[in-house]
Structures are given as structure tokens and as C-alpha cells.
Amino acid sequence: MVASYSSGDFQYKLVDGVIELKIEGERLPGSGKNLAREFRNQAPRANTNLIIFDIRESYHPLTKAEWAEKIERTAILFKGYILALVIRPDQMIESMEMQQAHEAKGGIIKTFSRPGDAREWVLNPDT
Q: Residue 23, class by beta-carbon neighbours within 10 Å (0-12 exposed, 13-18 middle, 19+ buried)?
């Protein structure tokens, strides 16, 4: 089953029981509001707690305070979900901060450089 929604800066897809989110472009303070709203609308109907979140095509020119606020809001939004985060190599520090915030909310998260590896893990996160 594939269900999808796309906006100018993000894509939401439900593919075979996994929510696939992809963000693109410059991510400024408040830029995640459309994604959060759509996720809150669509995710409860998806009947899954599995997410692949691909941030490779996004850039976050934020202050430390703005970044801290963004990752906290993201951790709250994805609370209760198993999250596979797909990143570029230069996003490793950002991903570690996101991982800490998600785990602090009791979440399960792992970082990947390839979507295929992320899908394989999120379908069997015990490995």
C-alpha cells in the first residue's frame, strides 16, 4: 500500500507499513510546521509506528538555541515511533543530537546513509 502527500519542502509516504518522510531545502525556524501538521493528520491513520526520516537534502542554518528547539519539537512529534534517520556524512553531529533527544523521550532511533539500509533496520529494529 502506498499513500502519499507532498508539499514544497517535504514528502510524506506510507509504503508497505512504513511512514517515509523526506525534507528538502533550507530549514529555518518554523519551517517544520507544515510537516508536523500533516504528520499529525496522517500518521494516526497509518496504523504503524515505523518511520524513515530522510534529511539528506535539507540544510539547517540555525543558531544553537533554534536547533535545540527544533530537535526537541521533532522528538516530541515522533515520540513512540521507531525512527530510522537517513543523513549525509556532514550531518552526523545533527543526527547525534536528534538521536539523544529521541532516546530521551523513550524512542528507538538509528542513523543511516542509505534509505535501503534504513528500511531493512526499521522493519526489524532488534537487529
A: buried
